[in-house]
Input
Amino acid sequence: MTEKTELERYGRPMYMDEKPKDPIHARIGSKKECKNWDAEAALRMLQNNIDPNVALVPDELIVYGGAGRAARNWREYNKIVACLKNLKCDETLCVQSGKPVYIAQTHPDAPRVVIANSNIVPKWSTQAKFNKLDRAGLMMYGQMTAGSWIYIGTQGILQGTYETFAALARKHFGTDSLRGKWVLTAGLGGMSGAQPLAVTMNEGVCLVVESRKERIEQKNREGYIDVIAPNLNLAITLTLCAAMYKKPLSIGICGNAAEIHQELLRRGHIPDIVTDQTSAHDLASYYPLGDLAELDILRVKDCTEYEKRALDAIVKHASAMLEMQKRGAIVFDYGNNLRAQAELGGLTIRDEDGKYLYPGFVPAYIRPLFCEGKGPFRWALLSGKAEELRIIDDELLKTFPHDEMLHRWIKKAQEKVPIIGLPTRVCWLGYGDRAKFGHVLNDLVRSGKVSAPIVIGRDHLDCGSVASPDRETEGMLDGSDAVSDWPLLNFALNGICGASWVSFHNGGGVGIGNSQHAGMVIVADGTTLRDRRIERVLTVDPGMGVVRHVDSGEDIARQTAKDKHILIPGVTC
Ligand SMILES: NC(=O)c1ccc[n+]([C@@H]2O[C@H](COP(=O)([O-])OP(=O)(O)OC[C@H]3O[C@@H](n4cnc5c(N)ncnc54)[C@H](O)[C@@H]3O)[C@@H](O)[C@H]2O)c1
Output
């Protein structure tokens, strides 16, 4: 395929001719093909990210979140694989937006890989500038865990989504359950696909609008959504009946949220709760109204016109949500920047004081957890053995016998979460507990109860690793929403403390210029030497989260810092 044809088809050079012939799956088991386990883990996690069962569009290296990629193109992917296979235990591979650029001579305790994705000097950090660089083959969109090789499929966001809905139920209905309530949302992609299962796990009913039929079918196959409604009438009947009889049920309907939400309003159906997780952060990934095949062609041929139509649809979509709120629905933003895009399209979405008319999920439900250093801690088993996941689950519950939220989650996850790609688990753990459990994981590898090293990581959506004024840091008490010194400190500290790989990105779930965030991974290889690195990394990483929230004036964070003896000049020392 010529470069011109690739530009027309994919909007960027992809070097499709160099794509490996066989589908990519991570190697499993206790034999490594790299020279050390950190490089081996990075390689397997990169491959797991683009496993056809895990990734959104594996042929284009797209993992999730619109166009979130694992490598810039197939040529660079092959180079990364070759570098990792040869990487020595005193070398560090530097990856610049999906391209390996330098093998630095470092030392054994340093990260084996350092990744920077989609970063642009602030004044130039716009989607238009990024698109130009992307088209010229100079950058890629790394999303959060796509370009930092720690995506674990839809499960990665499932517990967070489940806990968000549970917190909503507690706050608005005074119970732990959404029994008899119905949620309207849209998007059934990589992350958004967690929504229906998270709602039914909370005993509620969920109606999800998704433009692409095959995405609904995939999530139905994977067990994330219960039924596919053939038309809107049936979708509404199923939703209302399930809510009336207080039966948990999730229903997918193929269509455009901008159209279906307006139609629901016209018919007078007001949900109890409304949110959204279409990929609105990236206008080129949000579907305007019209025929999908034609729109896919328009996106590549005339992106400006496509984005204009996407904005028009977003305005319709968000105005329907505002109207539903006026008519009694609880509405919240679910981290895809729909509100800011609607504002860009001309919709009034703030009050006179400049506050959004409906809140983001972090200030509304999640921030108290961040204040305790809690966030989406996760692990992946390089052994590939599902039964070993159960062994770890049991150890987790034994380690934290009094954490009711955790016990409830693990029980539901064992029942409902399918294993896709490498066996993985996510759970929200706080300061102190992450390090404690990191040691348990390393012990399990050391004793041979788990037969190969375990990859420990987290989402960038965490307590101390992100600055995102429309999401994780919306409405900080001291007005420091846009200060991105924090994720930079987090990135540096994790590197210094000996994470296996670290990353720093721009954009994430809310789009270029709207957030900066850091990732970290530490591999439990069962060695005694690794115990020290696990202790250091898994302490400072959530530690930065507590400190960030103490600094912005949160009482819970201040108490956590005191209780856990975290040294904060002028506060605890
Ligand atoms: N909890 C969080 O804050 C959080 C976590 C992860 C992702 N996100 C954000 O949520 C969004 C979705 O993430 P993802 O990984 O699922 O993305 P994705 O690209 O995998 O899926 C988005 C889905 O939305 C569908 N869609 C697009 N326009 C639509 C429309 N007008 N009507 C109906 N469906 C439409 C697409 O077909 C696609 O299947 C992104 O913006 C992402 O950044 C938020």
User: Anything to note?
Assistant: The radius of gyration is 22 Å. The domain at 155-364 is CATH 3.40.50.10730 (Rossmann fold). The chain has a mean pLDDT of 96. The longest helix spans residues 303-326.
